[in-house]
Specification:
The structure holds 2 protein chains of 2 kinds. Chain A is α+β, with helices and mostly antiparallel strands. Chain A contains 3 helices and 12 strands. In chain A, strands 7, 8, 9, 10, 11 and 12 form a 6-stranded antiparallel β-sheet that branches. A 4-stranded antiparallel β-sheet of chain A has the order 1-4-5-6, with no helix packed on it. Chain A starts with a helix and ends in a 30-residue tail after the last strand. In chain A, about 35% of the residues are buried. Helix content of chain B is about 20%, strand content about 40%. Chain B has a 5-stranded mixed β-barrel with strand order 1-2-3-5-4. The chains are: A alpha+beta, B alpha+beta. Strand 2 of chain A pairs antiparallel with strand 6 of chain B, so a sheet runs across the interface.
Chain lengths: ~270, ~130
């Protein structure tokens, strides 16, 4: 009986916290700026969200010492509960017959991962956009990436996915608003990409859903991946909190990989 | 009812325990981080390329011969975000600089640049542990 009471009490507390989160969600999104059509305004330059080495720069100039570190929070899963976020898990679950393949790809990632060799990360591995241009009937996502600087033009006028388009790393995207959340539906991928560094290969059946919304001044990005050919269930990633940035986009330098042939073992090198 | 509460608890627990899955970068995959060495020579070229910038150094040996060393370092996007650009290195092309680095495990005249000191005494150093 006591046990049951504890469970009920815990559930009540958690439900109350969820209700609080819902209210907070409504409060924060209502404070967020809005476009002329009433939807939340996602326009802007957003923080660089690709992992960089965790290194401090120590600079000595005319005898004066200074240290510089980089805020990498946009490249990491959110460390706090994010209002409006879907339940998430740290990693996808593959069907049993593919788990050995995932492990093998991950163990040999520095040899098997195209991104190591300047390949395109694709969606959703590239993460949130660096810049969003929000137009009445389409969204333009701009990125900075080691492999180049891709862009995506995403219709929001209710049209269906293109028919006959060639498969690609960034897929074919259409979007719509669900309340204050922009939901981007992405299909038509090449089948040789990875959606995560952990050897997370996908097939041409992959279907990605990205959700973007405002939390006060910040942008929230959360992606879900489904690939019924290899995953045992759809995977929703932890959300990421992207702060506004004043760092303008800059053309990425060319990618000239020169480490692969120097690797003497399968040590991991980190992409994302 | 119990089933519903369990479902809610499961959802909430999953919501809060999402943990990072990203690995940490380590040049140790290519370089022997335990053996730092210092080299003084003429800076000849700076390539501002992904995924690592490359700095070239001509170092004279005791017998007078010159070795053409190549050092990679952090990605250009990292340097950009600590407010350094190609010119912060390239301004010293043709001048004598001192590089501290680690050598490729595979050998050759190839290393990872950890610190560079310019003729005026100014220096740039990559510190792999956050400074306090």
């Amino acid at each position: 009986m006591t046990h049951r009471l504890v469970i009920v009490f815990s559930a009540a507390l958690l439900l109350a916290s969820l209700a609080t989160a819902d209210n907070k969600d409504a409060a924060t999104t209502s404070k967020a700026p809005r476009a002329a059509d009433g939807h939340p305004d996602l326009n802007g330059i957003w923080a660089y969200a690709i992992d960089l080495p965790p290194v401090t720069l120590k600079k000595v100039i005319n005898g004066k010492v200074s240290n510089a570190e980089i805020d990498q929070s946009a490249a990491k899963p959110a460390k706090r509960p994010v209002p409006g976020a879907l339940p998430s898990t740290p990693a996808p679950t593959y069907k049993p017959e593919f788990r050995e393949k995932v492990k093998d790809l991950f163990d040999n990632e520095s040899k098997t991962d195209e991104v190591f060799y300047c390949g395109k990360p694709g969606v959703p591995r590239i993460g949130p956009p660096r810049r969003i241009i929000q137009l009445p009937t389409e969204m333009v996502f701009l990125y900075e990436d080691v492999s180049g600087d891709p862009y995506r033009i995403i219709p929001t006028d209710g049209r269906a996915h293109r028919k006959g388009a060639n498969p690609s790393y960034y897929g074919d995207s259409v979007a719509h608003w669900e309340g204050d959340t922009l939901v981007v539906d992405v299909t038509n991928f090449v089948e040789n990409g990875w959606f995560g560094e952990g050897g997370y290969f996908h097939t041409d059946a992959m279907h990605v859903t990205e959700r973007l919304w405002r939390d006060g001044e910040n942008l929230i990005w959360q992606a879900s991946v489904d690939d019924p050919k290899v995953l045992s269930a759809p995977w929703t990633m932890p959300p990421r909190v992207i702060t506004p940035s004043e760092d303008p986009l800059e053309e990425s330098p060319p990618c000239v990989e020169d480490d692969g042939h120097r690797l003497l073992n399968s040590d991991h090198h980190q992409q994302r | 009812m119990r089933h519903k509460i369990s479902a809610i608890l499961t959802v909430i627990i999953l919501f809060f325990v999402a943990a990072p899955m990203w690995a940490h970068h380590s040049p140790s995959a290519v370089f022997d981080m335990s053996k730092e060495f210092t080299l003084t020579g003429t800076l000849t070229k700076v390539d501002w390329v992904n995924p690592h910038i490359v700095v070239y150094l001509d170092a004279k040996k005791d017998d007078g011969s010159v070795e053409n060393w190549k050092f990679e370092s952090n990605p250009p996007s990292w340097f950009r975000r600590v407010a350094l650009g190609r010119d912060d290195f390239a301004k010293a092309i043709g001048q004598t600089v001192t590089v501290q680095g680690v050598r490729a495990k595979a050998g050759g005249l190839y290393g990872y640049l950890l610190k560079i000191t310019f003729p005026d005494g100014n220096s740039l150093e990559l510190v792999f542990k956050p400074t306090s």
